[in-house]
Amino acid sequence: MRAVIGGPAMSAPSAPPAPAGPRLLLRRLREVLIGAGDAQQRLDRVVKAIAANMVAEVCSVYMLRNGVLELYATEGLRAESVHRTTLRIGEGLVGLIAQQMRPLALSDAQSHPNFAYRPETGEEIYHSLMGVPIVRGGRVIGVLVVQNRTRRQYADDEIEAMQTIAMVLGEMTTGPLPGQVGGETAGQRLSTRLAGIALNDGMARGVAVLHEPRVVVERHVADDPQAERRRLDEALSGLRAQIDQMLDHPGLGGGGEPRDILETYRMFASDRGWVGRLHQGIATGLTAEAAVERVQVEARTRMAEASDPYLRERLHDLEDLANRLLRHLVGSADTAAAGRLPNEAVLLARNMGPAELLEYDRGRLRAVVLEEGSTTAHVAIVARALGIPMLGRVKGALEQIDPGDTLVVDGTNQQVFVRPGSDVLRAYGERVAVLQARQAAYSALRDVPAVTRDGTRVSLALNAGLLLDLPGLEATGAEGIGLYRTELQFMVRSGMPSIAAQTEYYRQVLEQVGEWPVTFRTLDIGGDKLLPYLAMQEEDNPAMGWRAIRFSLDRPVLLRMQLRALLRASAGRQLRVMFPMVAEPGEFVAAKRYLEREATRLRRLGEAGPSGIEVGSMLEVPSLALHLPALLPLVDFISIGSNDLLQFLFASDRGNPRLADRYDLLSPAMLGLLRDIIRQCDASGVPVALCGEAAGRPIEALALLALGLRRLSMPAMAVGPVKAMIRSTDLPPLAAALAPRLASAERSLRDWLRDYTERQGIPL
Ligand code: PEP
Ligand code: MG
Q1: Which listed residue, 8, 44, 153, 373, has the most CB atoms within 10 A of its CB?
Q2: Sign of the CA dihedral 36, 37, 38, 44?
């Protein structure tokens, strides 16, 4: 059953009755901090009030100034030590509290190894000490300390009360204190480099923006605790309902989190301990938002201490959940897409869904950094369509990067530089200049034909899947769309598109493409491409499971709807359709029969249909290569899906990073298979193209041309480099040199091919 909304965990049975003390003190603090007098006078009154409330003989505030902690105000220590006594971060007990960002409570402070005696303070008579960091925006700005003469044990609720006071103090002492230059924080974070994997290549520089913004808590002290409790309960209900909804529709509006994370969220959101601590915060006089922030600070502290990766992960979940709860409290569940992005933004998220990425202003978005993600993730496909560099699996990104930090995302070397120094920025500038020069050279090739030095003409088409891809045609001079992955349009929607909506969509595609041909591939769903609104059963081997044509033939309604829409949208022009994952000719025949039936139906209804129809098959399952003699007479064209063909030929999951470099498309086995396919197609007069990623990689495209292939379909970004390679190549000698090597026992011919291109001066 789903979490019980309004159930027992919702009320606050675990919250103790509100102690009047801390609440009154918070009120008093607020009055003092916004009251009359200069900053120093107000701080003096604050320490007096805290000492009285905490029944301590001493209360002192140390603030960070010029990188050291300076005694700014004290009740109980000698007055002359104010602004004289200083401690470095890490020095003495006060420095230790700042360094560790953690409270410290000692009944015998002087026996602690870190104790640093400062004679001017006269503190030798005080034995016990309790101190907490004063934090603003996640950084230490000072330390609040109380001391007692007796060797007393500070109780947990006293430490908590002090933390609450310090938090309020941190947020209320905004602006520089006397002598401070600006707001100083401890441990200005250093430059760092985080590694990840490139989900989309490219270089970019920009300012970090959190996809799910953190709420800045402005009001800490509650006027009406009862009302705050109600607000918290309502926000918790909203949060639980949102998680339940996301669980019902994973991938919908929730960042596409995996199910196990959502389950963990749901568990935490109903956890009595967590909810109880939030209520406790309110009981001490905090607003609901401030209570969430308090609990969050605690989680962060524990996260810093935890070495167990599982625990760190869970604390991370808790932090994430608290952020969501804060957004519910302030009534804004929006992502950063709803606001105005900085001019050059690098989006930072744990994960996100493809539709969410599409909501951003493309003109301002420079790159995306994810803590999770994989190359086959839908959001990565969209990033490729948008031409946005994307780095995934960047561990600790959300911990290490603050909003507003400068980032340099380097997809080529799979890393992101956080708060980079001038050397990295200079190197980045130089790399960008080189890339731009190269891009300009590619743009200059736009109108020149893709012809080899020996006069062989090659047809270059684009792979597309969203309307966003289509301007690439004009920009690159490619000759049409060789692969239109229609499932992407289905994946970025929250509901099944009607026939009318599909028709309108395909019509737009055709209109934008103009005279060029578009090869529509029917839905390739299943495997990792799931539709949020279509329930499919989990499978042990989804890539080899009930997907693509198998699904379409078993549940033909969807296929027929799509074919009907494609036929209508192509009225008066040529329609090219192909089917994915065909494993035997019978599947192609059955699918084609649906197309013919829909075309007949259209004619019967008197509707305008296409001027001609070409029907092809993807060749991406090895069995079909063995069926070619039977298949070729039936098809108008073949498109080789080398991504899947390679994974099935070598029984090697294309999404598994451990296997990513194990088998090579440039292996004699794969190249031999491709050669046989190309030969048979040529002999039957059936046009054959290749639309897997290999077509867009110059060295692999070169091998394909040497095998006799003349049609390639690739992402827009690849057209320039591939065309440059083609124009520098003399094919006959390469074909002659390659042919005997297809019989070799080598793992891959990549090195040989690379040497060859270097000797021949072929750019890759
Ligand atoms: C392929 O498998 O090579 C292909 C083009 O299809 P997809 O990448 O969409 O599976
Ligand atoms: Mg495929």
Answers
A1: 373
A2: negative
What DSSP element (H or E) covers 680?
Answer: helix 668-684
Q: How far apart are CA 238 and CA 565, in angstroms?
A: 39
The tally of CA atoms less than 13 A away on the side-chain side of residue 344 is: 11
Residue 643: CB within 6 Å of ligand 1? yes
User: Which tokens belong to 708?
Assistant: 């006799």
pTM equals 0.66
- With tokens 């495997």, the residue in question is 527
Distance 612 CA to ligand 2 centre (A): 26
pLDDT of 365 strictly over 70: yes
User: DSSP per residue over 123-176, as a string?
Assistant: GGG--EEEEEEEEETTEEEEEEEEEESS-PPPPHHHHHHHHHHHHHHHHHS-SP
Q: For residues 86 and 91, give the distance between their C-alpha atoms in angstroms, rounded to a whole number.
A: 9
- In order, the DSSP letters of 7-51 are STTTS-TTSPPPPHHHHHHHHHHHHHHHSSS-HHHHHHHHHHHHH
Does the pLDDT of residue 400 top 60, yes or no?
A: yes
Band (734; pLDDT cuts 50, 70, 90): very high
Closest by CA to 153, choosing from 103, 104, 107, 93, is: 107
* pLDDT 10s digits, 9-63: 333 333 333 345 667 788 888 788 777 788 788 889 989 999 998 899 999 999 9
DSSP class per residue in 55-78:
T-SEEEEEEEETTEEEEEEEESS-
Confidence at residue 43, expressed as pLDDT on a 0 to 100 scale? 87
State the closest ligand 1 atom to the C-alpha of 463, by its place in the atom list counted from 1.
Answer: 5
Q: What is the pLDDT of residue 528?
A: 64
605 DSSP assignment = T
Separation between Cα atoms, residue 335 and residue 356, nearest integer Å:
8
If you compute the radius of gyration of the chain from its CA atoms, what whole number of angstroms results?
32
> Nearest to residue 570, comparing CAs of 611, 618, 629, 515?
611
Q: What's the gap in Å between 492 CA and the centre of ligand 2?
A: 19
What pLDDT score does 167 carry?
A: 83
Picking from 543, 542, 642, 660, the residue whose alpha carbon sits closest to that of residue 197 is 660
Give CA separation, 208 vs 189, 364, 377, 400, in Å: 14, 12, 22, 11
Instruction: Give the pLDDT band of residue 556 (cuts 50, 70, 90).
Output: very high
- Residue pair 182/176 in contact (Cβ under 8 Å)? The answer is yes
User: Would the pLDDT of 323 be above 50?
Assistant: yes
- 472-486: string of b/e by CB count within 10 Å (b at 16+)? bbebbbbbbbbbbbb
Rounded to whole angstroms, how far apart are CA atoms 548 and 2? 32
d(CA 449, CA 439): 17
Q: Name the residue of 462, 487, 530, 618 whose CB sits within 8 Å of the most ligand 1 atoms, as the mutation to test its pocket.
A: 618
Rounded Cα–Cα distance for residues 26 and 284 (Å): 8
- Distances, alpha carbon 394 to alpha carbons 299, 350, 660, in Å: 21, 9, 18
Calpha distance 107→214 (Å, rounded):
37
C-beta of 691 in contact with ligand 1 (< 6 A): yes
Partners of 129 in the β-ladder: 106, 147
